[in-house]
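Dear colleague,

Thank you for sharing your sequence with our group. We've completed the structure prediction you requested, and as agreed, I am returning the results in plain text so they can be pasted directly into your records. Please verify that the sequence below matches your submission; if there's any discrepancy, let me know and we will rerun it promptly.
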Amino acid sequence: MFPLSEMNWGFMETIFLIIVFAVGFLVTLLIIPYIIKFMKKKGYVGIDIHKNAQTEVAESGGLSMVIGITAASLLLMIFFPYFINEIIIFMITVVSAGVIGFMDDRLKLRSRYKMVLVIFAGIVIFLANFYDFIHISSPTIPILGKLRLTIIYPLAIPIIIAVFANTVNMLEGYNGEGSGTCLIAVIFMFICGLIWNSTEAILFTIVTIAVIIPFFLYNKYPAKVFPGDVGTLSMGAMIACIALFGSIEVAVFLAILIHIFNSFYILSSVKGFFESSEIQEEKNDIILLADDRIKASDQRDAALTLPRLILAKGPLTEPELVKQFYIISIICGLFSIISVVIMHWTMGRLDIIIVIVVICALIVPTLVLLYYFPRIRGIIILMIILLGAGIIFMIFLDIVIMEIVTGQINLILIKIPLNLIVAFLIAGPGFLVWYYVTIKYFWKEIEKMKSLDPNDSK
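Please find the predicted structure tokens below.
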């Protein structure tokens, strides 16, 4: 990460960024109608299953974002040559993820195979970092500060890319759901990049926002195009690159916490990586009612998903349901800002009073949103419990584990600190307790749903 404050940018650099944004936006916007026409002509269409009309919608519209990000990245190289290495690797990674996604849209690869292919896409960043073409530094964690994972973290880069890409891919299925939540998340990542003083975060969030906005306009209800895996995997790769290049991993994790929660629920209930289409075929989490409202399934073997958890409080129309996702995403974005402020305090750059003031200020809009959107209160409380437990654990780790446990285990290629192993062993049982609480909460809501007006289940 290169500090933004040391770039000495002025008026011209601002104009360059505006031009890059405009080009990424316009290229994506102008090419979408042609992609829709092409996909329909080739018969690459999907059924809009959350409407009784079962309309056909063009698939693989995310190809427009891949083309748009390529055009914007080429301009970035011209205007900001100091970061040409990072921009090249960013573009290659996103395009590679998009190609894998397009292959999956056509060939319908098994989820595990797609996961492996996306890991190979992440190897581009690993190799570039290994050969000093770019530099990915160890992450900075609130409370703990900058971690010293000089060997382990670079090795984990391909897995990080794959996890982020597939996590975004798993929260997709409703009009404007995936693109809208990703757009909200990246806007907050831009804010976090400014606060963290990260030039790379600013550059890559700007081009990402530029291509997601026009796609969202066509993808929102009623959708004229679906992203396909080419869209979801490329958006996930963009977000992963922002985290790695911008050194805002924790902020990005929190910004897409809604995606991570959904993935966690799915993985725990279906025991593996599954897409929304696979869930709908085998363990459908929802039921479409005659009036186009959507109801949560009350079957024990149905997939446990975030949409199902929201719908457990009663049926909603598709736009109403998607709006709940957007509100959760906004709150997750507020969490991400808090994390960056705490990171500054951890590094000794901010007074604790400022941190407290910021947290209190961001609590206000969170409470307002929870007041007007009661369906998501339980979900946000579960998130806060998890984050609160995480903070307590990190304090315990910093004060106790790091001081008492020393040494390392030597494997063939890497050395793993003993305190890191102990930390995982302690965190495991706590995470299982939290998981038990979330499952109990979910089924409590399902039982409440069963006692609703029987007309809602027709």
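Summary note from our side: The chain has a mean pLDDT of 88.

Kind regards,
the structure core
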